[in-house]
Design goal:
The chain is mainly beta. The protein has two helices and 17 strands. It starts with a strand and ends with a strand. It binds 2-acetamido-2-deoxy-beta-D-glucopyranose (2 copies).
Length: 228
Amino acid sequence: MAGVVHITTMVLIFGLGCQALDLLKATATLGDPPSTPTVHCWCSSYPNVTLCSWPEPLLSQPTHYLATYSERHSKGGAKMCHLIPPSSSSTSLTTVPSSSAFEQLWQCHLPNLKLLTEYILNITAVHSGGSSSHLTSFMLEDIVKPDPPVDVRVSPMATKNLLVGWSPPPTWKSMDIFPLKYQILYQWVSRGTTKSINLGPFENTKTELKGLIPGRTYRFQVSCALPR
Ligand SMILES: *[C@@H]1O[C@H](CO)[C@@H](O)[C@H](O)[C@H]1NC(C)=O
Ligand SMILES: *[C@@H]1O[C@H](CO)[C@@H](O)[C@H](O)[C@H]1NC(C)=O
């Protein structure tokens, strides 16, 4: 086939309650408190890879953090959330959502969480002027967010058809509990306007696209979706 094919994969998440975190309380204890961290949590692999992140404040004040988590309806004590400072977080367990690539993010890792359990994360920022604790609650079900599919490939079929295939995210170990589905977005430019078509969700890891125009450049995005 004469067509030029341009392939990309992107982190796109559909139909998930990623915004389900709610800030329960922020308390300042002493003096001029450090700014409130905006905490974002996601689980890229059930049950052991849940990360919470928050931006490093731009203030020059050195801040350090204490991060603990506990089950809301349990008498058990709080456990330490394993802190990962900004300099090392880019190489950590999974991809950081790239809302702002230049922001330095603190992360902490919560291992081995349970389903149907409300967790409370307590991030305490401490600096010489005081400290403040920020409580965030979440249920694992609401923050499950798989990494993107990998190894996207495109091969020609008939003159106007292409076969698009991909592999599940290798970090996703729980197909039995949270089976993944996939969606494809493909885009092209026609007379200066971008057109796009969304397909899916499918369980298959390949699909045939029909009616493509030879010579046109197409851009494909394959994303994971969790059935709800
Ligand atoms: C998760 O971690 C626990 C112990 O921390 C381990 O026993 C278990 O096998 C791990 N599960 C997976 C799916 O890696
Ligand atoms: C949050 O953590 C800080 C520091 O560990 C602790 O002093 C504070 O009592 C905790 N807050 C709650 C509500 O558990």
